[in-house]
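Quick question about two entries, pasted in order.
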Amino acid sequence: RSSSRHSETVLQDKEMAPENPEEFVTLMEHRLVAGNPVVYAKFASAIKTASLLHKESIINQCTRFKTYYEVQNTVFQQEPNVKEEFRRLYWALFLVRVNQGIEKTNQFELLYELFEKKIISAPAFKNMQSALNFLSKVRFFLHCHQKGSYKDVLSYEVRDKISQAMGYDLKTFYDHYYHQAAYPLKRYSRNLFWESTTQDTKRVKSLSGGFALNAENQIIFDKDGEEYLADNPHSLFRVFVWVAEKNYFISYPVTRAMEHH
């Protein structure tokens, strides 16, 4: 009876707290404990039903996390917080899971499924997988040397120990951390996040060379734009000019096409 009432509560709760989307997310990922497999299955089913009913609301509430991908949040730091790198990946993958109806929660498995479904390109998959593997090891060693609220911070006190444990000198370690792990992971996570929160493919302004602009100031493909790009890869240089001179943004489909070329 208790499980039945909990299921009904999940289904009937149409007003999720906008300021705390994380609370519902933990339920969607089945981070709960139940002693009875039947009770667990029913609760999980109710959560899935509720998440489908409120799909758009969940996505809209999560748009506030877009600040994680801003430039000022990825500048070079002497004492970076590794958890911040994982946070960017987490919300990007979460929104993709909601949009695509994917149930996997393991990030390594999820990246592979996104690659199999051609949601991310081969270069994106390779770089994200490599970055996730590297940062996971860094976080593991950090937790071996630090405790408490600062255990995810690559502090002055432990950075030499961490770099040695990873098999690098300190300079090489930081170079690998930022240029081969943190920055690539942030870039690809940002692309996935933008694609999941912005589905505007309506043209409001035509640009040259098979490109157009949507209401979000994102450069998108015009009609047959992808085919045009395949035949004229040099047209990509125009995209960089628009970004620099017009302050336009690049939509994920265009970014993904750039990776292919």
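Here is the second entry:
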Amino acid sequence: MIIHRDLISALRTALEGRKVIAVTPGPALCTAFGIDAWPAATDPDILEWSTLVEAHAPLAERKMMRPLMRYTSGSTGLQKACGGAGPRKDFEDVFRVSDT
């Protein structure tokens, strides 16, 4: 699961048992959404997306990947993903936890 670092503490229970890769929100995003940058930048046990990307060279030979639908709200907070069959069934717990 790739997730904004500032959301991890609220969803920690739902993320248990999953490989989590965090994206630290930048200054503009922190300002736009009132995110406290310090808590968002903490939790060294979780791998940082940018560190992972920078540590690997591009693939020399690209192979066909299984289908993937990315979801992003971008900086507007509005959903941009389209199509697909909806969320996986085991993600229902994530949505329930986020409502509490």
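Reply: The chain has a mean pLDDT of 75. The chain is about 35% helix and 10% strand. Hope that helps.
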